[in-house]
Amino acid sequence: MTETNIEIKPIGIIRNSISDPALVADEKGLRQNRDKKAVQKGFHETEEEVSEIILREELKDLLSGIEEYSHLIILYWGHGISGDARTLKKVHPMGDESFPLTGLFCTCSPARPNPILMTVVELIERNNNILKVKGLDAIDKSPVVDIKPYVSEFFPRNDVSIPEWMRKIADNHNSR
Amino acid sequence: MTETNIEIKPIGIIRNSISDPALVADEKGLRQNRDKKAVQKGFHETEEEVSEIILREELKDLLSGIEEYSHLIILYWGHGISGDARTLKKVHPMGDESFPLTGLFCTCSPARPNPILMTVVELIERNNNILKVKGLDAIDKSPVVDIKPYVSEFFPRNDVSIPEWMRKIADNHNSR
User: Is domain B12-150 annotated with CATH 3.90.1860.10?
Assistant: First the structure.
């Protein structure tokens, strides 16, 4: 069963002004594309970045009713991730060597075997087959593979434990 | 860009006792596979269901450090969804005709253009390349495409709005 490959046809494409990812990866590992301050600034800017999701015209009816949601889950494909980067086993999270070398599936690294990346975004408006959203941390021209409604009741809030290094990242994220 | 198909190689497979999905779909729409009470019961049982995720042996190092998380996000492929079901545009959510006919991307229907399905599960234990998890609503033998850490700080909690019909589903989910 795990031998059969799955074929996915993108449902649309992301357009925004982010041409340059904050983190890059190759066969040697994950690293920050800019200095640490610029990376932090990059993440903050991404949260404010407005992107357009342009759906294939024939799929526009699948958006019927979407305006009633304030937030959506976007699954997109990390098309900038090289084949080499997809074979990494462990990385320093966020490309920060002060964080321990950690198995890929324990990190949010975009470089992973199947770079299906996920962000919860704020829906600003819909115009026919185009969604305008805020906070999508994808680079320009990323293919979109699915859109799901975000319903906070389906996500646990209490009794969730995470590693100490991830706590630092989460606290920094939350303090904005 | 949206013309190029994406190829995904599953990272592993799900094993559990769920052979029979609560919701089924064909070209005519989404419907409940059993009577309404059985569907409700099915969803409750799924929350308690313990599944094994068996990773490809060569990927076991990517789990290094996973025991420090209590919850994981599992992306898996809805391998039981037919080609016809993937062309649906609108459905009655949960196959319940008292809910309005709604665009696919506004629902959690497993029948969608790219059935990459997502569940947040509780991690019970890891044994080499096998994860034992609770609450995975996949059927037996579903291919797994990605595993991500669940960090509640990355998900909004306040000022989230959803349609009235989804509020009913969410309230029912939360009252358990």
Answer: no
pLDDT digits (tens, 9 = 90+) for B163-172: 999 999 999 8
Residues of A in contact with B102 (CB under 8 A): 64-65
Q: Chain A contacts of B171, Cβ < 8 Å?
A: 153
Task: Work out whether strand B102-103 and strand B116-127 pair parallel, antiparallel, or are unpaired.
Answer: unpaired
Q: Is the dihedral of CA B41, B42, B44, B50 positive or negative?
A: positive
CA angle A10, B12, B79 (to 5 degrees): 50
Sign of the four-CA dihedral A175, A70, A147, B84: positive
Residues of A in Cβ contact (< 8 Å) with B147:
105
Tell whether the model's pLDDT for residue A55 goes beyond 90.
yes
Answer whether B68 sits within 8 Å of A146, measured CB to CB.
no
Taking the whole predicted model, whether its pTM rises above 0.90 is answered as yes
Q: Kindly provide the residue ranges of all beta strands, DSSP E only, lying in A81-171, ordered along the sequence.
A: 90-91, 102-103, 116-127, 130-134, 143-149
Q: pLDDT category, A154, cuts 50, 70, 90? A: very high
A·B CB contacts under 8 A: 241
The answer to whether residue A103 scores a pLDDT higher than 60 is yes
Q: Scanning every residue of chain B, which has its alpha carbon at the shortest distance from the alpha carbon of A100?
A: B65
pLDDT band at A23 (very low <50, low <70, confident <90, very high): confident
Given this model, what pLDDT does residue A19 score? 85
